[in-house]
Structures are given as C-alpha cells and as structure tokens.
Amino acid sequence: MNVLYGLYRPDGGQILVDDKPVTFSGPGDAMAAGIGMVHQHFMLIPVFTVAENVELGHERTRGLGFLDRRRARKQVAELSRRYGLEVPPDALVADLPVGVQQRVEILKALLRDAKVLILDEPTAVLTPQETDELMQVMRGLRDAGTSIVFITHKLREVQAVADRITVIRRGKVVGEATPRSTAAELASMMVGRPVQLTIDKEPAAPGAPVLEVDHARVVDAGGQLLVDDVSFTVREGEIFALAGVQGNGQTELTQALLGLTPLDGGSITLDGLDITHAEVHEILGAGVGYVPEDRLHDGLIPSFSIAENLILDVHDRAPFAKGVALDLQAVRGNAEERAAEYDVRMSSVQAPASTLSGGNQQKVVLARELSRPLRLLVVAQPTRGLDVGSMEFVHKRIVAERDNGAAVVLVSTELDEVLGLADRIAVMYRGSIIGEVSADSSAEEIGLLMAGTTPQDIDRQQLDAAVPVTEPGLEPGPGHRREEG
Amino acid sequence: MSSTAQASGQQTPETKPPSTAKRSLGSNTIVVTVLAFVAAMIVGGVLIAFGDQDTRTASSYFFAYPWDTFTAAGRAIGNSYLALFEGAIFNPHTASSGTLAGYLGPISETLTSATPLILGGLSVGLAFRAGLFNIGGQGQIILGAIFAGFVGFHWHLPPGIHVIAAVLAGVVGGALWGGLAGLLKARTGAHEVITTIMLNYIAFNLLAFLLSVRGFQAPPYGQAISNNIDASARLPHLFGSSMRVNASLFIALAGAVFFWWLLTRSTLGFKLRAVGANPFAARTAGISVGRSYIVVMLLAGGLAGLAGVSQILGINPAITGDIDAGIGFDAITVALLGRANAGGTVLAGLLFGALRAGGVQMQSSTGTPVDLVEVVQALIVLFIAAPALVRAMFRFRGTGSAVGGGELAKGWNG
Hints:
The complex is a heterodimer of chains A (485) and B (414). The longest helix of chain A has 16 residues, at 128-143. Chain A has helices spanning 27-32, 50-55, 69-83, 98-111, 128-143, 155-161, 183-191, 250-257, 280-285, 295-299, 306-309, 328-341, 358-369, 388-403, 415-421, 443-450, 455-463, and strands at 15-17, 20-22, 35-38, 116-120, 147-151, 165-169, 172-177, 209-219, 225-235, 239-243, 265-270, 273-274, 288-291, 321-322, 325-326, 376-380, 407-412, 424-429, 432-438. Chain A contains 17 helices and 19 strands. Chain A has 3 domains: 15-191, P-loop containing nucleotide triphosphate hydrolases (Rossmann fold); 198-287 and 373-453, Rossmann fold (3-Layer(aba) Sandwich); 302-369, no CATH class. Chain A has a 6-stranded mixed β-sheet, with helices on both faces. A 4-stranded antiparallel β-sheet of chain A has the order 9-8-11-12, with helices on one face. Chain A has a 3-stranded parallel β-sheet with strand order 3-4-5. With 485 residues, chain A is α/β, with parallel strands linked by helices. In chain A, 33% of the residues lie in helices and 20% in strands. In chain B, α3 crosses α14 (342-366), α6 (137-154) packs antiparallel against α7 and α9 (248-265) runs antiparallel to α14. Chain B starts with 26 loop residues before the first helix and ends in a 5-residue tail after the last helix. The radius of gyration of chain B is 24 Å and the shape is globular. With 414 residues, chain B is mainly alpha-helical. Chain B has 2 domains: 25-58 and 66-89 and 368-401, no CATH class; 116-349, no CATH class. A two-stranded antiparallel ribbon of chain B has the order 1-2. The chains are: A alpha/beta (485), B mainly alpha (414). At the A-B interface, α9, α10, β15, α12 and α13 of A face α10 and α11 of B.
C-alpha cells in the first residue's frame, strides 16, 4: 500500500490509474493522481482545528498573506455535508474522539479530490459503535463514486462492508473472495490452512485469589488521573478481562501491576503478599509473567538476537549466568529449545528479533514469559497486528496457562477476543471500571460500556426520551488521551 | 527449525522492513571506512594546496600556465603526506642512522599517541553501548591525571607498589568524575551531555586552581606546573628511554580486552547493552536502568581516567594545565570511527595516533600546520556518518542506508 501511495518505489510492475500507467516519486504524485490514504496512525496536528488540519498544505490566502479561514471553514462544512461526514470544523483535533479524528483524515483526502481512498487498518483504534459509523461513511462514499481500498485483518468487517475481497499472504495475492464467503473460508485463505476461529476452552475452575487490586490510583507526571480507584480480584485458573477503548487507563493499570508505574494510592497484593512498592524484578521473580501491549517497545529489544531476547529477564540467573559471566552455550541451547517449542519461524536464533514477523515476535515474548512457573500472567493486546494463525496460537497458550492454575489478566480492545477468552469481563472507561459483566454478555452490551454508557444511563434515556441525545461520538471522549505510538 | 523458506510465513499487514540499525562489522562497513579515509585525505589535499605559498603564486597566472599550478599543488600535497607517513610509520632519514630509535621512532610515537586515544575511545564507546553520550572524557582524564599524579609525587612508596597505587588512583579519579554524571542521570534525569560538559569545565578549572596551590605546584611557584612525578611511580618504557612508548600501551590493550569481555561475555554487559538498545524493554524485564547508568559511567570514567594515567605516568614528567591534550574530544571521534566495539576502537585509536604523530613531523618539515590532521580526522568521521555520500563519490552500491550511521546518530535522545 505504501507503494500505491508513493512512499516506496516498486521494484517492478506498474500501477495503472484510469488505465494510464503512473509512476510516483512521493505521496504528492499519488495525491495528484487521485489516490488518498488514511494511515493507521493519524497524520494530524492536535493543536490545530479541524478546518485548519483539512486545509493544511492547501491553504488559500487573501491579500497580504492572511489565511482565508472563513473559506476553509465553509469548504470543510460543505464537504462534510456532501459525504455525510459529521465534523465540527472549529473544534481542536486534540479534543475529538478517535473516530472523529479519523473522519478528519478522510476529509483531508477527499478535499484533494481523491478518487481512490486507501484505509489502512482503520478500525484498530475505534469502538464497535465508531466502527459501525465508519462503515456507514464508507458505503456513502462508495455510492458517491469513490473507490475504497480497505485493509483489515478483521474478518467480520470484511464481510460487512466489502464488495470484492482480495486476500494477500506473504506479499502475494493468494485469492479472491466474495462477501458471501464464510469467515472460516477467508481465514483459511489468509493462513493457508484451516483455522479454528472460536476459542476452545473448558469452563473456568477458579481457585484461591492470586491478585487483589484495592482502590488503585495512578496519576501521571502532569497530575492527570489515569487510573481512578480501581479494585478487582483475580483467582487462580480464571481469565479476567479488562476491556475498553485504547487510552482509558488499561495501559497504566497493567504497568502498575508490574511495578513499572508507581501507584498514587491503593494497594496490590499477590498471593497475600503486598507488592505495591516492589521492584519490577521482584514482581517478575514472584511468578508474574507479562506480555506488554507494544512488543517492539517494551517486550523485545529489536536489535538483540532472538536468543538474547529469550533471557532478558533471567540473564543473571542459573543456568545462563556463571558467576559474572554469561554461559553462551546455555543461552543458545535455551533458545533452540524454546524456538522449537513455540514454532518460531526464523533464520537462526542469532538473528535480530527485528527480522521476525509480528506473530513470531509475539511468540518469542510468550516463550520467554511462559518459560517460568507463573502465578499470574498479565497479557495486554496479545494479538494486536497478528494474523489469524498466530492469534489462534496465542489464544491457546493463554488458555493453557489458565488451565495450569495461573491467574490471567487480559487487557484487550478487541471485543471478539475478550468475549472468546474471558471468564469475567470488566470494562474500563476514563480510568475506572465502569462495569463488570459475565463472559456470556452480548457484544452490544460491552460496546455500550466501552463508549461510557452504563445500563443506568440507558434506563434513564428511555424514561426521559424528551431530552435530546447529543450526537454520539461528537462529544469530547477518551480520544484526547489516546496513547501515542 | 527445518524450514527457513517459511521464515516469513506469518507476515502481518503492518510488518515493517527489517531494521538495519544494528549490524556487525561487515565487509561493507570496512569498505566504507577505507573509502571515507581516502575521501578525507583527498579533501585534506585540497586544503594543503590552498595553504601552500608556491601553489598560490602559480595560480595567479593559472590561465597562462595552468600546469604550474597543478605541479606546485602536487608537490605540496606529496611532500606533506610523505612527511606524515615518515612521522607515523617509517622515516628513511632517521633509519639511516642505524639505531633502533631511528627505525622504530615513528612507530613508537604512533603507539604513544594512540594509547590514550584508545582508552578514551573505549570510555566513550562503553557509555555509548549503554545509550549514553559521554562528552566528559576531558574532565575524567584530568581527574585521572590529578589523582594519579598526586599519588605519584606526594606519596613516596616502594618501587612497584608506587606505580600500581598511582595507576589505581587514576582509575578512581576518572570513575568518580564519570560516576557523578551517571548518578545525576539516574537520580534526577539530568541529561549526561549537559552534565559531562559542565563537569569538564569544573575539572579544567579545578586543575588550574590546584596548579596554583602550594604542595601541588612545583617550586619556585612561578609556573602552572605540578611537582615532578617520582621515578618509582612512572610506567616503564618498553624500548629504552630514547623512545617514548611505555607500559600504558599494555594498559590500553588490556582495557580493550576488558571492554570486549564485558560486553559480549558478562551478565553486567548484557544489562548495559539491553539498557542501551531499548531501555523500556530492559526496564520491563526487571533491569534497573538507573543503576546501569551509574555503573556504566563509573566504568567509562575509569577508562578515561586510565587515559589520564597514560599521559601523566607515561610521557609527561608533571601535571600541566593542558594534560588532557584534546584527547577527551578526539576520543569521541575514535569511538564513532571504531563503531563502539573493542577491535574497531583499537584500530581507530592507532589510525588517529598515527595521524597525530605524523602531523607533528609534517608541520616541522613542510610547514603544513598540524591542525590539518584534526581536519582529516573530522572528515573521516563525517564521511562515515554519511555513508550514502561516500557511496555516491565512489559509485559503489551498498546494502542498507545506514552502515553504522544508526549508531552514530543514536545517543542524543536519552
């Protein structure tokens, strides 16, 4: 896709736009040819208004170089009316929820007369409701004559919105499908073998409490309350899910569990032992495994070899340490063993972790964390960016760890994953647990909680229907606290 | 794994191209280094030609007799580089005297100049591998020299013990100065580039102050120079007193071996490298990032302190205000050229040592200023930091965009 947008040059072949071959030396050429792209990570300036962001790079000026703001505003308003993309032109982008920020990105492309719109994993950052709205927008654009290339790994979305489906695996087109194809058919095309989409697991058999979080509070350096009075208990042999849209305090809460972020108040107990103020290595040593949400940032050292990454936390313990020296043979032997056990596809254990695919990187993290006997496993976004095959593997491992008697805390923004894996589900919204539901709740119920609507709110709305309901998604939501990078 | 063909079998939609930031000293790196040296010498030649009186005179009638300009320039460049070679490697004029010093004198000078550069380069390189930019070589060298020198002239210990005590004192002095920057970074988050530069000023002026204090300053207290170091505290010469090369060379080589062992074979080195390569993942794995910063700055300071030791116990009879002789800053260039690994740093130190030794000879016999050597050194590193430039100049295709460039560019974002 980066080739289509002019970011990379093709090594061969050609690109045709309206039957004419084109060559792009940069995104500018691609835009001129009518190709617009909405990246997974938005390219917006948070402190500019919507209108300013949309106009950026195309500013019109009146005499003397004054920006023609009124024109810009009018143009944005007209565009958003024409395509049904509701945006407030004068709001600061930083104050908007993620879903609306995404509409601004789409508007930017449309203003440049994009005839082809490339959406790269656009739903990764959206709530289920926002995703539905995006799909409405996509259908509207399609009907208005825009071609859309929608890149996603979520089968449900493909089936919901696509007119034609192309499956790419290992950089090659492996087949075409119609929206009527079943999810299982699509998945097996993506992976190259039949895959199991539902997660097989026995009912949980919870034992003694392992992790107890009591009135936990986390405040960042700027004094902002990120985790607000969160309490929960996780027992051995159960998977406790923290669902929620990205940026609602889950990241900070998991980091606090590991001792990476200090608590501002409250306490954390592991097997009856107070670990509130313990150091990271003490917590890891007490039998806590951690799969961080950003594996390349926190989970792995990309420039280190696979073998070295597999001993990051235990490098100074037997058998890898002999006094002050490393036992390189033990390090290598361990790596060969783990790589075989977890089916890590690599050229050698001495290859840098950066050369692995995302799925194999995640396997390395799992192999390291699960190689110790665990009391508690904390996994955050364990399948983010993974293909269906790797997802299946990761899920099986997590369930296996639960069945071994570990307590599991699963942090995920993927509803399917939460519903498939969890034995109990808590939803986090703006730093606190807004509600706890059972594992057989409906996706709608959890989706509403993720958007900050509690069952009580719904009751109230039904009772008092006369009160106008504000456009969902337009009020400043959790978007402005979204994690960067 | 049996099937490497399937290595990329589970490509994800967001997989990025493999990073080229980290790479071993491959043939590509060596080619770029050699070509960077050649390019730097060519640019240096242009500067020599511009600085040469005969060439300038000939160029005033360039359009009448252009050849005159070129021959004059060629002669100036040739003579200068010949003198550089004679000063650094082998000088047929002195060799004809038939003495050992005549043959080996230039090499001895090269090794003598290279010794503190290697130690300083190891110091900068070690901090670099842990993700820190140690600009404080100057201050650490000065403190090493003060400590070693003080033990050398103030304590009067038996031979053997005296020199060992002085060397160790130098290590302690440098380590204290480096460790201070590490402590500030770990405890308060103060950026090491700022703190080490400020510590340089403090060290420099502390030395200036000490050189005016009775008990430190040599009688009759007219000059800013310390008491002479006892003979028992001096590092022995390797080939007699006619050549300056001394036992500090072995200290430098031992330092390089220690550097290599630490980073590739020890658990401590593993921690330091992990912190340097990705402090977030290191912290998540339970490694204390702050403690690593303190430890690595202690070690780096100790290595720089040894560079001060080689200056004061090896070649200078007493401490003077310019005891660091610019080594603290040249050490940064050495570490960059040596790609922050042991072997590379030794080779880079030898190259710069040769340039220093040859530069002196070049200035005395051809009048080309010794500063040219500094220009050439800087150009080498500049060309290596921009490998694409070297490749374009010499029209060879390399793989990847950053041959060591990633390492050179890193370190400021701590």
